[in-house]
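Recall the central idea of this unit: under ordinary conditions, the amino acid sequence of a chain determines the structure it adopts. In this exercise we apply that idea directly, starting from the sequence alone.
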Amino acid sequence: MISIKEEIAVPSPPAHVWEVISNPADVVSCISGAELGAAHDDGSFDGTLVVRFGAVRVRFAARVILELAADEREGRLSARGRDGRRATRFAADATFRVVPGDGPGRARVIVSGEITITGKLAALVESGAGTVITRMTTEFSDQLVQRCAGVDLHPARAVGGGGQWQCPG
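Accordingly, the structure predicted from this sequence is:
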């Protein structure tokens, strides 16, 4: 099992950070290799993420459920899916919340979660998880700060209609 515990300082007001982090298209635009797919009638949506483990690139596809509690500025994300070769499955559960930061007009995003991997690529994924999580967290944090500041470095764009979004890059 892979555990994630992160705290991200964002120099923007908590209400604005919540607007960004509670919008799946905005979040996807902060993650290189991520795509937001079609929405489903039950409120879930499809998503994909390409992750590099050294020289190996693995594409994961998932059904994602996002539950938001706007008054508390808290959310829960659950994802279930597998890699593109259907040899490895994963289940991910995470919670996040936006709280006031160290001063006026500042926020912190607190994230915790667990990912369980089973199948052929489990050992590869788990052995490289620390490095990958550090790299992705740093990238996500930088992009989140930029997006909250109003800089749109990697705008999400529609692909093929039907509510699909893709992060260029």
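The chain has one domain: 2-24+50-154.
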